[in-house]
Amino acid sequence: MTYHNNESAPKKVLVTGASSGIGNEVAKRLVDLNHSVFVTGRNDEKLNQICGVSGSLSGDLTLPAFVSELVNNAVSSLGGIDVFIHCAGIGLIRKIKDMTDLEFVKVTNTNMRATFLIAKEIGEIMSTTGGGRFIYVPGILGKAPMSGASAYCASKFGAIGFLKSMELEYRTKGIQFSYFYFGGVDSPFWDDLDMNVMRDKMIPVSYAASSIIEAVQCPDHLVTGDVVIQPQSHQL
User: Fold this and answer.
1) Residue 151 belongs to what domain range?
2) Which residues contact 211 (CB under 8 A, 6 or more apart)?
3) Residue 215 and which of 24, 87, 145, 177 are 20 to 30 A apart at CA?
4) pLDDT digit string, tens, across residues 201-233
């Protein structure tokens, strides 16, 4: 695989969390821009509604066997991976005293362990094929804590710590890392959370997706790094 030096050249992109929200919008935009895209998520029906992708596979990113199958299928369909966009994750708003052990484990397993599993596989591929670009979307709670979101914050802080360390390990391999800390995006993420939020004040999914697209098409000699975007009305 060759990591293109021309920012306008088509990229080979794997997108997680593409069933809905930011991942879904990013995948559609990338296809419209003539990039080759492979998508994954938990909802096979919604993945199949994304027109023009090179392939899709639904499943559970916490399962090592599925992650290996996903990465192998993506590499086979795309001919390699230039850019990995990790939007997958689950949320939980629950006070510590009300949280069960199983709830904590589920959130950290999905948001942190799954990140380890897939990043490890893709890192090894990129390190032997000329490099690439990792784009992770932890949200603002991967940078700033919030009352009632201890498990979610722990999982995102943990994933960030892992990827920042990975960034140091792979620095000489041509792999660049970008992190998008969005401060509340008006997406289906909030649909099932028991929390009163002002969704009309949140960042539109379209704007969040546009920011990520800029990082995908960024020239290779530039690094996007940490990007923080929050509504002025409620910053953390």
Assistant:
1) 12-229
2) 180, 227, 229
3) 145
4) 778 889 899 999 999 999 988 889 999 988 876
Is 7 within a domain? no
CATH code where residue 69 lies: 3.40.50.720
138 vs 69: CA distance, rounded Å: 24
pLDDT digit string, tens, across residues 131-184: 999 999 999 999 999 899 999 999 999 999 999 999 999 999 999 999 999 988
Alpha-carbon gap, residue 123 to 231, rounded angstroms: 33
- Report CA Rg, the chain: 17
Query: How far apart are alpha carbons 219 and 214 in whole angstroms?
Result: 10
pTM: 0.91
- Whether 234 is in a domain gets the answer no
